[in-house]
Amino acid sequence: MHTMMPRDELIWTWVVENEVDGKVQITDFWCMKRVTNVVLNKALKHADIKQAYLLFYSLTVNTYEDMLKMQMYQAQNAMDCDALSLLTLMDNEPRQLMELNFHSGP
Predict the structure, then answer these.
(1) Confidence at residue 20, expressed as pLDDT on a 0 to 100 scale
(2) Range of the domain at 61
(3) Whole-Å CA distances, 86 to 13, 25, 42, 71
(4) What is the separation of C-alpha 46 from the centre of its chain, rounded to a whole number of angstroms?
(5) Is the pTM of this model over 0.85?
(6) Closest by alpha carbon to 77, among 88, 85, 69, 66?
(7) What is the CATH number of the domain that holds 36?
(8) What's the domain count of the chain?
(9) How many other CB atoms are there within 10 angstroms of residue 68's CB atom?
(10) What is the pLDDT of residues 39-89, one digit of tens each?
(11) Is residue 106 part of a domain?
């Protein structure tokens, strides 16, 4: 549970609230962490690269594709990241990721 709680500059958690049976309830959530990697080549333009990693999610209203689009936006704008990575740990289907222009790593 501790990996889902927001922590400054490390863990970001989002919840989506929707009205269900006349009451506002949390219907979806996801959390991501940011890892900062130092660029060792001093001749390059950037001193570091920030990468967001999807940790956990649960969806009941939004689609997987909609969630990924929101995560890409949030990784860039709210987390100031250069890249978003997903592991197949949480049933992230490689086919669906390819359709959204994600590329598999080594």
Answers:
(1) 85
(2) 2-99
(3) 15, 27, 29, 11
(4) 22
(5) no
(6) 69
(7) 3.40.630.30
(8) 1
(9) 22
(10) 988 888 888 999 999 888 888 988 888 888 898 899 999 999 998 888 766
(11) no
